[in-house]
Each structure stands twice: as C-alpha cells, then as structure tokens.
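Tokens in:
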C-alpha cells in the first residue's frame, strides 16, 4: 500500500509531502485510515531530535483517530469498519511479564508509533491490534485524538496514586496536558488547585474546573496552601523549585511527574521523610485503561480544548504550537 504523508527529512526541518510503501500486512496488524491526528509536543521533540533517537525521514503523529480498513488473519478485538484510536505505542510483545500482567505500556520491547517507523500525519497508519483502541459509539472523533496520548498520560497517574474524590489536588502547568488533567480531576470529584505563571489564563483555567489558581512564582501564594494537597501532578518539562511544591503536600502526599524534565530533579530527602511523602512518574497507560478513560470521557463529556487545522497546513500548525499559541491542543483533519 502506498502511503501519502508529511515528513521531516532532517532535524528542525519543515515537513514536506512524502510517500512510502507499507509492505505486507502482518497477521496481527491493522491498517487505519486516518481521519484526525492530534499534534503533541513530543512530535516537535522528535522532529527536532531533542531526544537523540529520531530516524529520518520522520512522519510524526501519534494521536490518531480513524477507521480500520484492513486486518491480518490473527487480529482480535477489532475488525474492518471499526472506529479506533492509536496513540504513542503501536505494538507490544504480548508475552513479557508486563504485557501478561496488563501493563502493555511498560513492555521493554514495545514499538512507539513514531520511533523507527512512520506515524499519523498521513492518510493511513499501521499498528498491532492490541493498540488500536475501539472508540465508544458516541465519542466526538474530531476532539478525541489528544486523549490517545496527552489524555491517558494524565489519567493514568490518577489511578496509580489512588486519588480519591475527597482529595485536594494540584496541577502544575496548564497547557496541553495540564488542562486535560484539570478536567479529569474535576469530574473525579476533587478540589483542584492550578499552578500557573500566566495570569492571562486564570479565567480559562477556572472554567475548566479549577477551584483556585495559584501564581507559581509567588512564595506568598504557595505558602497559603502549605500542607494542604494530597496529590500534585507536574505536566511541565522544565526545572522548578521542587521543594516549594513538596511543602504544599499534606502528610503522605504524592508529587507525580509526567513532564519530561531533562535535568535531574533536586528533591531534598527530609522534605519527603518527615511527612512520608513520595515522588513518582509514569508514561501513558495500558490499552485497557485507555479504553476506560475514553468511556469516562464520553460519560462526563470531557474533551480537550482543541484548534483544528487541515493536514496540508501542518507546518502552520506546528509553528502555532512551537510559539506557545495553542489553546490548548491542535488536531489535524485529514
């Protein structure tokens, strides 16, 4: 099958039309006709080779919504005609301890959708059936793409940390990830404190479901919630004064990061020991949890706030994201 796509041919290059042959369909693989594909900051990182693992030409795109148009003879759970989503991972080995225990997203042999292969800025994309997540019947496909990466990335920690509806929680960084975290936590039943350094976002943040917005650059405002939070989710990828956030945690509170902070995090041991506090992190979630998250979204009408661009204007969309203008996720329509 010939695929028409947009690819970066070298680091930091603009994307240009690109075509390639997919080859023979594997027995456990499905081909998906792409209807929508979200743009994640990870796409930018891969285009720029920020993580040192990009292979060119690169077709980005890993927040894919579409329809199964072909399936191998050993495919289970999905069939031709099904509407599905494909996220950061496109396959896992299905035999290691992690896969056999349901943690497919932790498989050491997993295949990422845009690492060493081509992703969803294209008319078709291929993946293993286990990661082609069936979509709930009533989901809004035009807004669902970012849920397949950004959404599950912030939903998984809620489960991992056993966040309760009675908890008071904090979200650091109200962008593409953080704004979805606020919406999830609001509908989880939590009191949600948002940390933001941009005062212009305050009204928007409150409408998302935050109870209060704290200026993360103000020591006085941080002091006002000292010892009150049961859980904090960091969605930023920059180095912060982590101790100032640890002091806002209640005893046994948890600071969890999904932001890919590239520098070591300076965590004072006594800030953890005295209150039995902990620091943790996670990637996305399993296929089963992703399906649960999508059902939760439909039940509570939770969607990312998105801006839509046609696929052929992908470079304009990437520039919009790179300049920090996205409010709050971008979706490409094919």
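Residues out:
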């Amino acid at each position: 099958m010939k695929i028409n796509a947009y690819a970066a041919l070298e680091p930091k290059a603009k994307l240009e039309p690109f075509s390639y042959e997919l080859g023979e369909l594997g027995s456990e693989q499905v081909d998906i006709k792409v209807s929508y594909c979200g743009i994640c900051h990870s796409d930018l990182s891969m285009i720029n080779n920020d993580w040192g693992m990009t292979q060119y030409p690169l077709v980005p795109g890993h927040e894919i919504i579409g329809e199964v148009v072909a399936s191998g003879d050993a495919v289970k759970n999905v069939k031709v005609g099904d509407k599905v989503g494909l996220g950061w991972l496109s396959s896992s080995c299905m035999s290691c301890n992690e896969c056999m225990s349901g943690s497919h997203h932790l498989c050491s042999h997993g295949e990422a959708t845009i690492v060493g292969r081509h992703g969803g800025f294209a008319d078709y994309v291929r993946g293993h059936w286990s990661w082609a997540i069936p979509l709930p019947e009533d989901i809004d496909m035009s807004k669902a793409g970012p849920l397949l990466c950004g959404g599950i990335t912030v939903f998984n920690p809620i489960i991992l940390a056993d966040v309760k509806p009675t908890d008071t929680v904090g979200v650091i960084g109200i962008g593409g990830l953080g704004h979805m975290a606020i919406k999830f936590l609001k509908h989880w039943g939590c009191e949600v404190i948002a940390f933001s350094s941009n005062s212009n976002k305050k009204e928007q943040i409150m409408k998302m479901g935050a109870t209060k917005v704290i200026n993360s650059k103000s020591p006085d405002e941080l002091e006002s919630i000292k010892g009150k939070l049961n859980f904090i989710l960091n969605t930023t990828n920059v180095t912060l004064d982590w101790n100032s956030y640890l002091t806002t945690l209640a005893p046994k509170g948890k600071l969890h990061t999904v932001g890919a902070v590239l520098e070591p995090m300076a965590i004072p041991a006594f800030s953890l020991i005295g209150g039995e506090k902990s620091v943790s992190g996670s990637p996305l979630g399993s296929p089963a949890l992703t399906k649960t998250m999508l059902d939760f979204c439909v039940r509570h009408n939770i969607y990312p706030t998105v801006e839509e661009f046609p696929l052929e204007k992908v470079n304009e969309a990437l520039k919009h994201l790179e300049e920090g203008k996205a409010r709050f996720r971008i979706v490409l329509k094919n």
